[in-house]
Write a structure and sequence with these properties.
Layout (H helix, E strand, L loop, with lengths): L1 E4 L5 E6 L5 E3 L12 E3 L15
Antiparallel strand pairs: 1-2, 1-4, 2-3
């Protein structure tokens, strides 16, 4: 999953723990120093399936 820093908007690969906490993978905080992240919803980026242009 992807997570965005709530302070600067940087995007990181992340994991959500069972308690709901979101942690970036491979480091403890964002490059700006923040440790608050929110999940990024990328479901709108999926290509449409079954469209017919002809």
């Amino acid at each position: 999953m992807l997570a965005a820093c709530t302070a600067c908007g940087s995007i990181y690969a992340a994991r959500q723990w069972p308690d709901g906490e979101i942690r970036v993978i491979g480091q403890k905080s964002c490059s700006c120093g923040s440790t608050d992240f929110e999940l990024v919803d990328d479901s709108d980026d999926d290509p449409e399936v079954g469209t017919d242009d002809g």
